[in-house]
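Appendix B, Record 12. Input sequence as logged:
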Amino acid sequence: MTSLDSMPSSSVASARTTSSRRTLGPAWHEQHEGLHVVRVAGSFRDMGRQHGELLRDVIPQGPIPYYRAYFEKLIGRAALGPLGPLVWPTLQMLVGSRVGRGMPRFAEETIRGLAEGAGLPFDEVWGGCTMPDSMVWLASRLMELRAPGPAVVHRLSLGLGCTSAVAWGRATHDGKLYHARNFDYHGVASWPATQGVFFHAPDEGQRYVSIAAAGVALGGITAMNEAGLTLTVHQHMFTDQTRLGGTPIGAIGDEVMRKAETLDDAARLLAANRPIGCWTYVVTDGTSKEVLCHEESPTRHRAFRLGGDHAVDPRLQKAEDTFGYANVYLDEALGRTEVDMYGSYWRHNAARHRRANERLAEGAGTHDARSLAGILGDRGLAGCRVSEAISMVMTVGSVVFCPEDGLVWVATGEAPTSRNRFVAFDLRGERRAHEAPSFSVDDGESAEARRAFARYRDAYVLHLDHGDASGALAAMDDACRLAPEEPVFHFLRGLLALELRAHAVSEQAFDRAIALGHPHPERRAAFHLWRARTRGEQGRRDEANADYRSCLALRADAPVHAAARREHGKGWSGKRRAIDFSMGDVVTP
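Logged structural output:
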């Protein structure tokens, strides 16, 4: 096999285009329906370099550069003032370097090849690859210091959400195993725009396919190998259980895909791994029709097995031959490390877990790739498109695997990808599987509702990535006009208007949210708190106090009640609070 080490340093010029396929030795790149489809082969450094060269023009718009720039913007907004630009290099020097020391040799070689192929400084690419674990560690330290505001904001900004749904045997129409997954991550504008299907043919180990984005050269997040194993990763965000010196995220999953032929193999590899943060790996075997749910922290791991002859653990919320998972530990000891710091997040997380299992049970006996994609596209409550939806604004990648057939259906288009068209790819032939039907999620959502959600997504990107509150407000104006019955859309519009000190617009938006109500009383309490603040800003103290009392009369999240008690009769300081668009709320009000 040709090694790229023998190619000239300007080997990007040696890449050759044949019809719509661009080739580079044993590697190639083509596009299907907006997805980058790439094959890489050879040594780890070869594969990294091929990835970098073939996607050289795309990687700068992808998640690796995005997260470095985003970190600096996030820190700049965290009231650090002129010190903000100094925090990134300091964090990299003190923490990122220690994260990097835990990177396995194969991963370092892959990343080094990626930088060479893309023509980017190695330190820049390395920093982007180690930064997620660095931020998880920093957030946990802030939680220990009882500084939940920044910690929670950072976790939300850099953590994974994700939902998995698995059905097999008697739950599917043909008895085959199907594994569906939403990848919920920030980078809403960058990840879907550079999303790819990556066929890996390493010199060492099995072939596998990963679903990622340009610049994400390791295949350990969402993948399937030629032995018929699938793998998805879920992060546990609100826990202080982190430890430097472990293996950064993505590396062990890549190793599982290359080395594991059975779930026993996968279980041994995962059990021997020591992570930096807290994760769950859902691994399935399409041949034996079994599922491994491996939960871990730096100090403990617990594995659950389903299917085959394995007894069902009573803690597993389970229908026959199905398994749904979100981001709440099933193991009680690991669960005690999670902290309920943000009510809207926890209700959403629990709801995704519950709803995935409910829909798996409802469709038992009929499931296939299309029905599992429908679960990924679930819109949640009738009275709110945000609070309990499996398909959320952060859903930047959606797939359905059928490992027995070597097929993966990949969603196209913008976030939430699970509401879009799914197209099939074949690992065995390393190709677009035209014989497998493509499909779209169609559950009766109106064109106006789709456009409203798209404008909500626009507001999210404008505010989070660009700091453009005025542009975000204009986008939410459109969202509220197109979907006038969505209370959280009006609430977000009110928060943005208050940030811009447009008090009349803000109060009108909160009025509408309160009039619509919400299935969660905690949300209704927050609506009253923020209208009280808006009225207080206008000097209407009596009306503000009435809203504070309304807030206190409702069941609410502890920070909301604490704010209402503190401000009733005294007023609000007017201090800016960071808006969390993913949940349509404020983390620390």
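The first strand starts at residue 16 and ends at 18.
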